[in-house]
Structures are given as structure tokens and as C-alpha cells.
Amino acid sequence: MGRAVTVATCALNQWALDFEGNLERIFRSIAIAKSKGARYRLGPELEICGYGCSDHYYESDTLLHSFQVLEKLLESPATQDIICDVGMPVLHRNVRYNCRVIFLNKKILLIRPKISLANAGNYRELRWFTPWSKARQVEEYFLPRIIQEVTGQETVPFGDAVLATKDTCLGAEICEELWAPNSPHIEMGLDGVEIFTNSSGSHHVLRKAHARVDLVNSATAKNGGIYILANQKGCDGDRLYYDGCAMISMNGETVAQGSQFSLDDVEVLVATLDLEDIRSFRAEISSRNLAASKVNPYPRVKVNFALSCPDDVAVPTCMPIQWRHHSPEEEISLGPACWLWDYLRRSKQAGFLLPLSGGIDSSATACIVYSMCHQVYLAVKNGNADVLADARRIVNDEAYIPEDPREFCKRVFTTCYMASENSSQDTRNRAKQLAEQIGSYHINLNIDAAVKAVVGIFCVVTGRTPRFSVYGGSSRESLALQNVQARIRMVLAYLFAQLTLWARGMPGGLLVLGSANVDESLRGYLTKYDCSSADINPIGGISKTDLKNFIQYCIENFQLTALRSIMSAPPTAELEPLVDGQVAQTDEADMGMTYAELSIYGKLRKIAKAGPYSMFCKLIHMWKEICTPREVASKVKHFFRMYSVNRHKMTTLTPSYHAENYSPDDNRFDLRPFLYNTSWSWQFRCIDKQV
């Protein structure tokens, strides 16, 4: 009697609508799984078309091409003698479902539609799909002709069922169903299902990995069983980075852990486990067994196939391991770096250009690019042929091999310090020193001539000359003069991104990187269409506090000593005139609040769903040791005035790496008006009454 089952899960770097590339990666994962003795292979959610197709799911082409890929998988000898579980959209009776298609030896065993759809935050699955609401029911699905010709089947089971092999029983969950309060694995486990599978499209958020791991382990801690999780990895075309973490758990303990951040397009995790360990674990849980005796059974699809071998007594099985979590600083170093690499290679550009001011935000962005170069160097050193091929294409050299991270950085990363008469020598030196240490191609330029030319046009037309407030001008004049400098830097950034390589006799163009952090975006402390306007922004979802900790991490782990002076300097925009050669303008003074306060406001506004009144009520307790109720009221009012006045800026926010759940990204995550009544008269009156 077979006891030891060998199963495989994977993390694939799929790309929305890249059917050819997606098929190739699926084939590679199946080949690796078979080579390691696996009899069952699980892939990520919607892996055939890529998870992030969005409104392309409405198109019949997406359904057609998904079935064409399925046809290739079914007819290939590579998929023989292994149960393959793949994800794709399926139209059943004119309703679109997010499905798992499970097949073996050219026969489709079951099409299992998703029951609980993800529809919060970045997810909009209810926009494109309908949840399957017929619990424990199956219907006949009439296969398209191209599939019938391969399988010889006219119809297959479609619905909420489980697979009964010769030696065990398997039940599928899809992503969100693990997070739901009434997860299917609970009832399936009571009905005798021993192996639970979960195909996910779960994205990275700082400090989130432990929650996913805990959910997987807890799924079998009370009920016993094997839980297998597959996940998408990489950037598949938008702001999210899917962070892998494929894993296999048994009886509440992790037995196999995949990487969270990696440049490997295909990662396969295989484990051999003893089914008798599940049965003995369940045997003594009397409460579970009582509940199991009364459970409503699932339809079972019988499969004439075993996941184990008859004579497997000598087969070694996997033992529990301790999950290793990354620190938040490591997550910032690795996640956005992998996202940037995917964006660079898939956009077919020749590198990045970053306006490097010598402050914390742009320096942190530069460090993330350096970390990307470091990851590329290590991947090539470890024999990753895909990464080497991409690197050679990017630098336009078929014989190229990265010698070290700094040398690769020189080829793909251009930094540019754009000085004005309001810039200090200190920030110029800091930018230059950091560029030297990471190896970027560095440009120093002065924007004063362009600023004077633009302001000169205004003076000629109006006959008026605006002045900074330190020279007697109004706040309106001063702000306008600051904004001209900021916007000219954006224009120059794009000019140099397009033509710097041309001027150096090299092919290609550069992607412009932005460097506004999540707190500044929330407050609106940025000029619309300045250097915050770029192609992509790797730090747009990261707080100032986390960026400071990341800078310290880079000092210690990359030996970037130039960052020490950047860390100790007060953040400044350097848009107002210097006083005695020194910077007089600071970010926190301009904003009227600290970055630490901004992080708290952001979390209360978005995560705690607090309006002005609720935020005041929470903060009078949180800050009771440092602020009077009147001071708290003043701070809350100031934040909401500034937030609402500047909300329009979020409509043009540069696409940013999503790393925080209090991101103000207006595109799909944080949907709000951008024309507010900024007096908040009713809300503020309620606060005043409590004060």
C-alpha cells in the first residue's frame, strides 16, 4: 500500500497576455517537477493568460488563446503521467469564471471555478468574473472543439468537487478562499480530503509574508492534511510585485519553503510526504471526527492514478523546517529591485535615469537600482542563463558577462544632479559620492539658464517680476518660482533619458525613475509634473521611516558610506534661496507635520477607515502623553486640509511599486474624490465640540 506521495508546487514569473512565454514557463515547471519524481504539479492562479489581464478578460481572444495554450499542454508528451493543475478563465453558460483545469494523460478530470473572489484593495475580480455559488455541485461543461479533438471528451465535470485517486483525495482552493472566514479546506478536510491545493496571485506588501505563512500552516493545524501553495512571482504588467513564497505544509508545520524574491522565472518546490502521518494526526482529534461524521459530502471525481508507489517504505519523507522571514529592510532591498528588473527587461529599454538630489528619497531609489544590479550579478554568477541573456540584450553586447554590480550599474544606470542657485554644495557632493560608490554614470548640470528663460517669458508678457518671499515677494510668487524649478527638472530628465545614450554613441533610451515616498504623496508635498512625474517609482509605496531604515541597511550591507551624511542631513527640497550659503528650507517645516506623524495619519485614514472625527478620537488616546486634545484637533484639521487640497495630484501619480496598505494611489487602490470641500465644516465642528 502506497504511503509516500510526491507533490510539486511552483512560483512562475508569468506576464499578462504573454501566452507564448507563459506556456514555455509552465512546460519548464512540469519538466522540473517530473524530474524530481512528482506525480502532481500545481501552478499559480490564471497562469496561462497571466493574472493581471484586467479588462482583457472581457475579450473573447483571451479565452480563445487560453484554450489554445491548454491544447498545447494536453497534447504534449511532457504532461504525461503527472496530474497537472493549471489556471485560466473559462466561459460556462455565458458566465466567466476564474478556474483551475486539472488534467491527466490527455483527459480533463475537473474544471474547478473560484468560489470566493478577491475584490478589495488592488483586486477587482468581481468586475471580470462571477463566483461559483453552487456548493458541492457539478455541471457538465461542453468542451471547445479544439480540446475535444485532443481529449476525446465532449463534456467534463465543472464545479465544486474533489479528486479521488487510488491512494488519497485532493481538493482545490484558489487564492482568496484561503483568506475567507469559511475556507473550503475546512469542510473538505472533514470530508476526508487529505491534500489541499491553493493557486494564488498574491502580491507583496511589507511585513505581509508571515500572514500568508500562518494561514497556510493553520489550515492543517486543527484538521490535519497537506497544504500546497503556488503563487505568481514578478511584475506581470502593473504596480504589483507578486512575491512567490511557494510552500508546502503538513499538519500545521512548513516542510518546504520557496524564495520570496528571486530573478528565477521558474521555481519548483517538491516534497515527499507520508499520508499515514495525516491519518494518525486526525485519529486522536475527537471533535474533528465527530464533525466529520455529519459533514455534507463533496462530489468525487475518480482518478485511476496514484500519487504514491506501491513499494515506498524506503522512500525518505520531508521533515518540518523553520520559515525564514526577511526583515522589512531586506524586503525593500529585494522586492522593488526585482520589480525594476522585470520592468526594464520587458520594456526593452537600455536602463534607468534618476534625478539624484542627494536627499534620502532619491538616494534610496539609487540604492534599490544598485541592489537590482547586485541581484543580476549574483544570478549570472549562479548560472541563470535567462538573466544573462536579458543583461546582454539590455547592454547590447552578445558576449557580455557582468563582472561586478558596480560595473553593471555603470552600463544601465544614469544619475543626474540638477543644480540651481538654491542648491547647496553639500547635496551636490553627497550625490556625487553616492554615484561613485554605486558605479552609476553621473551627470552634473545647472538649470538656472532654463529657469531664467521661462520666468523671463512671464515677465515680458505681464510686465511683472515675481520674487521669493525672502526678497519681499508673496507666498504665491515664491511657490510659483519653486514650481518652475521643479518642473524644468522633469523636462530635462526626460530629455536626457531620451538622448544621453545617443550622445554617448550607444543605442536605446532610458526609463525615468521617480522618487516621491508614500507619505509625501499622501500629504501632496510635491509639485505636480516635477521630478515625481516619471515612468515608474520604486519607492512610491514606502514610508520615509522605512526608507531611513533601508538606508542604514545599505550602509551596513553594501558598504555605501556616502549614505551616512545623507542620513544625518535634514530633508529639504532646496527650491528657496540659500541663507549665508546654507539651506534654510526643510521638508517638515514646509509640510507643518513630521514624517512620523504622516505615517500615522496615513494608516488611520486608509487602513482604519478614519475620517477627521474618528482620527481625532483615536489620536487623543494615542498621543495623550505628548499632545492636548486641542493640539490633536489642530494637527488633524491641518492634515485633512492639506490632504484634500492636494488630492488632485494623486490622479497623475507616477505608477509606483505597491508596498504599503495605506498607499494613496488613485489608480485602483485608494478611490476618492479629487475635488473636496476643503473646509470640512461639519466634521471639524464635531471635533471642536469634543475639544
TrEMBL record:
GO cellular component annotations of the record: cytosol
One example of a Gene Ontology biological process annotation: 'de novo' NAD+ biosynthetic process from L-tryptophan
GO molecular function, one term: NAD+ synthase (glutamine-hydrolyzing) activity
Tagged with keyword Cell inner membrane: no
Domain CN hydrolase span(s) in chain numbering: 5-275
PROSITE patterns: CN_HYDROLASE
TM stretches of this protein: none
UniProt pathway annotation: Cofactor biosynthesis; NAD(+) biosynthesis; NAD(+) from deamido-NAD(+) (L-Gln route): step 1/1
InterPro entries: C-N_Hydrolase, C-N_Hydrolase_sf, Gln-dep_NAD_synthase, NAD/GMP_synthase, NAD_synthase, Rossmann-like_a/b/a_fold
Tree of life domain: Eukaryota
Alphabetically ordered keywords of this record: ATP-binding, Ligase, NAD, Nucleotide-binding
E.C. number(s) listed in UniProt: 6.3.5.1
A Pfam family it matches: NAD_synthase
PANTHER family the record matches: GLUTAMINE-DEPENDENT NAD(+) SYNTHETASE, NH 3 /GLUTAMINE-DEPENDENT NAD + SYNTHETASE
Subunit structure: Homohexamer.
Cross-referenced NCBIfam families: nadE
Stated name of the protein: Glutamine-dependent NAD(+) synthetase
Organism: Origma solitaria
Lineage: Eukaryota, Metazoa, Chordata, Craniata, Vertebrata
